[in-house]
Specification:
InterPro entries: SCO6880-like (IPR049978). The chain is 44% helix and 20% strand. It has 502 residues and is of the alpha+beta class. The longest helix is centred in the C-terminal third of the chain and has 24 residues.
């Protein structure tokens, strides 16, 4: 991805494309190994045995090679085995320690699944903002922070305005790629069913006692007609960097959590203006209690009303202790949905079209159709350094060139898809040489409804809203991790890079 959308379009590609007829080296090696017994049987003249081996080895090869909803059959079997093992040993069942009276420290995080590896230390005060909660991913060795954005949305913007915002987003990612401290940015948008709690709290404080009766009746009528179906949006951004990138400058800043916070703060200060250039009118870096509220309402949207009322009563300083930020109870997960605190969530991975997309085209995933339904959309970006970007585009150009030359030498013509890939590889190499960067990205979406509703109906509505524009892959056997990637503003959702880029 470069700073301009016109360069980005058409360059989206698989992160680990196969070298040999679209196969990875491991798949190709397995297929060659399966072909050896067939060849030996034919060489020995045992044609009946060779025919039987063709059927057996061909079936195994199909299980290894042919993808079924994003994963080959053998990988499905392996993931199913892991899933059933977790269910049988009850590793996947979870209950809050605070509910059972076993919480010793209310400031110690008590979160299920992949969230258990996160720590949330408070950094030193940042300007007049106060303390900022740092997110320490002990599994991948990353440090980050989350901000709540105030944004009016892009639904009413013209194509020219969307194009300008897309260019500014590219410039923001490009600037992140030129910094040594952070390399990931996650944008999360969550719809919030507006039950009127914030409005009622504000109205109780500002209501005029001698207001005309007609005005009161008109306001009450509007509350009944509009309030039941109104929807608000929460927008979060999470920025993070690796421990390796932070270690040396953090040591110079005093070391420990304070040193890492000081290094992150310098970057956060420099990126606030760029976030505001994307249309954000406010950027509020979250403290520990505020981030705990965002996680708590992610697990249980029904708590938003009570927390909002308590926040108004406390003058805006109220939050949630980390021991109560997670769900109260998470039963054994379903293979196709995640149950949490009386709600059910279905998560998807969103695949981008080969021809690219335009800014704001994912808005259909946030179009709530039923009062009480919540939808979430998260886009996780990782910018590669210039060295890794040049290495990635050279590898891609070399691979496409080798395949094209081999086919030409054998008398085969290259198809349109191969010609497009070769042209995209050259254009991408030119873009990187001109100073642009490569960005890995992953998009996750989710729909959440009360547990008593039929969640499959709402999942089908989500799929229908985006049909024909994007492909949705349901996060089968990993709905709990998909929930974290799509709903919670903690920056988890992009797998670790193991060679290549996209």
């Amino acid at each position: 991805m470069s700073a301009a959308t016109r360069i980005y379009k058409g360059l989206s590609r698989r992160e680990r494309a196969g070298w040999i007829v679209g196969l990875t080296p491991v798949q190709a090696l397995v297929c060659v190994g399966l072909a050896v017994p067939v060849i030996l049987a034919l060489a020995a003249g045992r044609f009946g045995q060779a025919l039987g081996l063709v059927g057996l080895c061909g079936t195994v090869a199909m299980l290894v090679v042919v993808p079924v909803r994003g994963r080959p059959a053998l990988r499905w079997l392996w993931h199913l085995l892991l899933y059933r093992t977790g269910v049988t040993l009850r590793w996947s069942r979870w209950q809050s320690r605070a509910v059972t009276g076993q919480a010793r420290d209310l400031d110690e995080p008590d979160l299920p699944g992949v969230l258990a590896r996160l720590r949330f230390p408070d950094g030193p005060p940042l300007r007049d903002v106060g303390r900022v909660c740092l997110i320490h991913d002990t599994g991948e060795g990353r440090w980050g922070a989350t901000a709540r954005l105030t944004h009016a949305g892009v639904g009413m913007l013209s194509d020219a305005q969307c194009e300008r915002l897309a260019n500014r987003l590219g410039n923001l990612l490009l600037s992140i790629g030129h910094r040594e401290v952070i390399d990931r940015m996650s944008l999360l948008v969550r719809t919030v069913p507006d039950d009127g709690a914030d409005y009622q709290a504000w109205r109780a404080e500002h209501e005029v006692a001698d207001a005309p009766a007609l005005a009161r009746r008109a306001t009450a009528e509007l509350d009944r007609l509009v309030g039941a179906v109104s929807v608000r949006h929460e927008v979060f951004v999470t920025l993070s960097g690796t421990e390796d990138a932070l270690r040396r400058p953090a040591a110079a800043a005093g070391g420990g959590v304070t040193g890492r916070a000081a290094v992150l703060y310098r970057v956060l200060d420099g990126l606030e203006d760029k976030l505001k250039s994307l249309g954000a009118t406010g950027v509020k870096w979250l403290s520990g209690p505020e981030l705990a509220v965002a996680i708590r309402t992610g697990f249980n949207p029904a708590t938003a009303a009570g927390l909002a009322a308590r926040r108004h009563q406390a003058g805006g300083d109220s939050g949630v202790r980390w021991a109560t930020a997670g769900p109260v109870h998470a039963p054994e997960p379903s293979a196709r949905a995640y149950q949490h605190d009386g709600f059910a969530t279905v998560s998807y991975s969103v695949l981008m079209p080969e021809a690219g997309t335009v800014f704001g085209s994912l808005g259909g995933l946030l179009a709530v159709k039923t009062a009480g339904e919540r939808r979430s959309l998260a886009i996780h970006y990782e910018t590669l350094s210039q060295h890794r970007s040049r290495k990635a585009v050279r590898r891609l150009r070399f691979r496409t060139g080798v395949v094209r030359d081999w086919k030409s030498s054998k008398g085969f013509n290259s198809g349109a898809a191969e010609a497009r890939e070769a042209g995209g590889a050259r254009a991408q190499e030119h873009a990187v040489a001109a100073g642009h960067g490569i960005v890995r990205f992953a998009v996750a979406a989710a729909v959440t409804v009360p547990g008593t509703w039929n969640v499959e109906d709402h999942a089908a509505k989500l799929e229908n809203d985006i049909a024909g524009r994007f492909q949705l892959l349901r996060m089968e056997l990993a709905q709990d991790a998909g929930f974290v990637a799509a709903v919670l503003p903690v920056g988890l959702g992009l797998p670790r890079l193991r060679g290549g880029a996209s």
